[in-house]
Write a structure and sequence with these properties.
The chain has 3 helices and 20 strands. It is mainly beta. The protein is globular and about 85 Å long.
Length: about 350
């Protein structure tokens, strides 16, 4: 439950845009370029407070953020004559969103507002992204013991010290300190398409892509930790790549059959690169010549195939790269492949 702050005020934004629209080569190539800058002040955010008040959070004006970016869209005719039409287009966006000021100067930890305990954890810090993932930095798996190792990122002494890549590390998750681990926002995202038509035959393809940024496997963290969680299930990837005495170079640590052993170990272990390229849609069709269909008392006939999400190349292959706006993979149903065949007749 949330209680309002008595000094609450409206959030305000100051925006400037500059756009250029153009056409060259007798409009054979057209496009737009737009740059924008938006400063938002008195940003509204739910902030955790002591539960002694009877409430878990309060809505406050916490600071200021800046969003700026550039969006480019180009399209053109590669070939256009009586027999062949071939067109292509591309769009690309690069947007940076940064915390520029925090009232009081203190960092603010906040959680993805959707989902349950598996939500992604973020931090607002001046000069950092508005979607900066916050948690402990995973150092990998100890080859000899099969245990998780975490970078310390502090000056504490620990009862289970070790060193990874020359940096102080620990087997005890609780002895490591949290830090900003990465940015959800990609460096570049968009799509491109092409359409080709020749003598009644046509092919159209539409691709989407993302370059840079991270996603967070919130659902995977919930069930694929090193102890058996309440679901008592294990992903095939986890089973095949877990540490065993015969597989000491494993990607994941050994499994420990104790409920809730470390089911709350949030950290960079569950972060994955967000880069991907996907064939979002494919359309193929053929319009049967009129001299053939007219004999059947049909004015027009066309056969077609439509496919959705037929091919994807992604830096992380464990789950669908199209996650929610917080970069979090939860319990949602993955986007499936679809195939549609059909015949269109006009009488």
């Amino acid at each position: 439950s949330t209680i309002a702050d008595a000094n609450l005020s409206w959030e305000t934004s100051y925006t400037s845009n500059l756009a250029l629209e153009f056409g060259i080569l007798n409009q054979r190539i057209t496009g737009t370029i737009e740059v924008f800058n938006r400063d938002s002040k008195d940003l509204l955010q739910d902030v955790p407070i002591s539960r002694v008040t009877g409430f878990s959070s309060t809505l406050k004006n916490i600071g200021e953020i800046n969003n700026k970016g550039i969006e480019i869209e180009l399209s053109g005719d590669i070939i256009r004559n009586r027999e062949i039409t071939w067109t292509a287009g591309i769009n690309a966006s690069s947007i940076k969103s940064k915390v520029t000021k925090l009232y009081g100067g203190q960092n603010i930890i906040w959680w993805e507002p959707t989902g349950g305990d598996e939500r992604t954890k973020f931090m607002y810090q001046e000069g950092q992204s508005t979607l900066a993932i916050y948690g402990k930095e995973w150092a990998g798996v100890d080859r000899e013991t099969g245990k998780n190792v975490w970078y310390m990122n502090n000056d504490r002494t620990t009862s289970q010290p070790t060193t990874v890549n020359g940096r102080p590390a620990t087997f005890r998750h609780q002895d490591a300190s949290e830090k900003i681990l990465g940015d959800v926002h990609p460096k570049l995202f968009g799509g491109f398409n092409t359409n080709f038509a020749w003598k009644g035959f046509n092919v159209g393809m539409n691709f989407t892509y993302k370059i840079g940024g991270y996603t967070y496997d919130a659902a995977g963290r919930d069930i694929n930790e090193d102890g058996y969680y309440w679901e008592r299930i294990m992903a095939k990837d986890t089973y095949d790549n877990r540490w065993t005495p015969e597989n000491k170079d494993a990607k994941y640590p050994m499994r420990i059959a104790i409920d809730l052993t470390d089911a709350l170990q949030r950290g960079s272990r569950w972060m994955n690169k967000a880069d991907y390229l996907r064939l979002k849609s494919l359309n193929i069709g053929y319009t049967i010549p009129k001299e053939i269909v007219n004999k059947l008392n049909v004015s027009n006939a066309r056969v077609f195939f439509n496919g959705q999400n037929l091919w994807t190349s992604a830096a992380n292959k464990l789950y669908d790269p199209e996650v929610n706006e917080y970069g979090s993979r939860g319990w949602e149903t993955p986007i499936g492949k679809t195939y549609t065949f059909g015949i269109e007749l006009t009488f």
